[in-house]
Amino acid sequence: MADLSTCAPLTRQSVIEAHELIKSKIHLTPVLASTYLNQLASTPREISTGSDSNRGPAKPVFRLWFKCENLQRIGAFKARGAFHAVEKLKKDPTFIEQGGLSKGVVCFSAGNHAQAVALAARESNLPAYIVMPETSSPTKIKSVEGYGAALTLCGRFQREAVAARIIEKTGARLIPPYDHPDVILGQGSVGLEMQSQIPKLGAIVVPSSGGGLLSGTALSCEGTGIHVYGAEPEFEGADDGRRGFLSGQRITHVASNSIADGLIGKLGEYPWGIIYERKLVSMMYAMSEEEILAAMKLIFERLKLVVEPAAAVPLAVVLYNEEFREMVESTAGEEGWDVGIILSGGNVGAERISELFA
Amino acid sequence: MADLSTCAPLTRQSVIEAHELIKSKIHLTPVLASTYLNQLASTPREISTGSDSNRGPAKPVFRLWFKCENLQRIGAFKARGAFHAVEKLKKDPTFIEQGGLSKGVVCFSAGNHAQAVALAARESNLPAYIVMPETSSPTKIKSVEGYGAALTLCGRFQREAVAARIIEKTGARLIPPYDHPDVILGQGSVGLEMQSQIPKLGAIVVPSSGGGLLSGTALSCEGTGIHVYGAEPEFEGADDGRRGFLSGQRITHVASNSIADGLIGKLGEYPWGIIYERKLVSMMYAMSEEEILAAMKLIFERLKLVVEPAAAVPLAVVLYNEEFREMVESTAGEEGWDVGIILSGGNVGAERISELFA
């Protein structure tokens, strides 16, 4: 990882510069819309309200815009942060002096970050050492090997230790999955693209785990008037971001088996600073497994897009979270809101799809 | 349907005019590519060749371009033909004189054509009578109702009789699913778009059932030097197009239960004239159920797109049909070919996806 002292400040301008640096290496992914989903989201939910309730279900009006990061290189937004981290490293004098170009980079990840670092390293002819848990999906393992990375499989809780040993032995630099300014600034480029692709964008709903994508997107919106919201699974405490946001204290331990397996990590320190301390995220919402699955089905059936469960959480918030829907009704009124939804990734195998929809 | 006497000649110019007429009503669907699928398609297959074989597997070189008609309105290319048929009707003096604008249109279909006609009629404020077999998927039935069409459910083999009764009673005009010049010219617009979207397009592989899409695409390529190939399932004789193509005699009865349920109809007369008699299609290929399913899985896992099984047949040809691959090797040599693949539709429910991938 680039020395922290060499990192750009965490500002919208730095996101713009990060985007300049990587835009020739990533896809400008399309934005899709669906008349059906707009109607569905703009229809009041059939919910039973308490007998002493003064009001029925919320009546928000939505125009939804789906940013297809499942069509990004390696099938997820993670390519953005990995390419940016590698490009910044290549400009870091210390890295060069220490022979970094031949020593390479290392990362540990069970998923999309592993593929992203392997790809970004290959395109810069840097050696890449990837540490993955043995339980990773065979598809992802094969994909990392396909990019020519040196792969080390390890036990589920040994990833950091194994990576540390590789670093000691090879001198390679660590590229962490989310808790680093260069990674956050790279992920934020998705928000900039949405601002140029979507007319009158009023808000963006973003899946949140470590918070790299959420905090990067929030930085990209600073000063624009666009509201940014985080979306998490609530199962077995995976809503650490929301709980921390409401209590004012970052939560540092999470162990959930949510179907949204891309979102079970804990919010990182840098993201927390942007999301909570700087108040660049307006609110965090958490959704049930059933709601996430229902949203995922709609994305398959109506948008014709393959997404992993994590990518369906923002649509679940829009369709099923009454607190969010009431907020949109009172904020945007009858005119309604243009809301961007980040479909963060599509890396889910056919067998897993079959299990989820059975 | 517009009187045949009022139809434009079946030429590339007529496809261009059809495209002009409908392009504000349809999506210009994106074209996607995949480095992985290019590599896979350009890798010789591991096949056992006979001991007296002089050669191993073919070594074709592909650059594949996927035309995303699954992202078309109603989720399939059928919107093109339906919009064109309706627009032509609205310009037909006889139709107007006979009160057609208030009498409306009728069609029979279990699938995408029903949704396409319902949508096209609604957008022109024409009444639409849709006849669907009772066995149609609930999703498709709901979708047709959602477009405000008058729906009649009937037994599997009663569709034409029921439609005839509706025509007699209401005076509505029939819009057939494929065997009419206006429908064929509308479908052909997809080929024109591909010619403008794909650099150095050498060939297009097209799913074929009734042959509206295949013959329309072939018309759009006439005189351009672009080769057009048809792709069918072979299960239980669904390869009627190929068998007719090889024997010189159109086959008029098909009854197959291929998983590619969009491709089990028989080739129509107008399509046959274009495909076989005018030789605008170079060859037809037929694929097994296993090969179609394998290609469908790759489209889900690698392109992150939801497609119905019918839409996967062209990729199956490219990856697994040795006759096709040998032809590409000998035609395009080491330089290789830019081959367009039409992903014809994405209307498949989550439950069916689950069954197919189980």
Automatic annotation (TrEMBL), chains A, B:
Its cofactor is pyridoxal 5'-phosphate. Keywords: Lyase, Pyridoxal phosphate. Coiled coil: none annotated. Pfam families: PALP. InterPro entries: TrpB-like_PALP (IPR001926), TrpB-like_PALP_sf (IPR036052). Residues 62-326 form the Tryptophan synthase beta chain-like PALP domain. One of its GO terms (molecular function) is L-serine ammonia-lyase activity. The keyword Lyase applies. Belongs to the serine/threonine dehydratase family. This is Tryptophan synthase beta chain-like PALP domain-containing protein.
